[in-house]
Write a structure and sequence with these properties.
The chain is mostly helical and 72 residues long. It has one domain (10-70). Helix content is 61%, strand content 6%. It has three helices and two strands; from the N terminus they run H-H-H-E-E. The protein has helices spanning 10-18, 23-35, 37-58, and strands spanning 65-66, 69-70. Strands 1-2 form a two-stranded antiparallel ribbon. Strand 1 (65-66) and strand 2 (69-70) form a beta hairpin. Helix 1 (10-18) packs across helix 3 (37-58). The protein is elongated. It starts with 9 loop residues before the first helix and ends with a strand. The model has no long low-confidence stretch (mean pLDDT 82).
Amino acid sequence: MEDNAQHINEDLLEQYLFGTLPDVEIESLEEHLLVCHSCIDAAEQHLAFVQSLRSTLDNAAPRTRVAGRQSV
């Protein structure tokens, strides 16, 4: 994110929301989010999806145990 006029691409946004964005990228991405309403909207939409996905996975039926280990 070198320029506030440039929008955040989806890959960077997803990395940020999943906590996998390299530290060197975080500050500029967050600065951009402070001023770009379009990217804030996109981040909120992605965040809602991530939260929904996590909730679905948390509520999934427990896996059965096989040979003393829980299957995945």
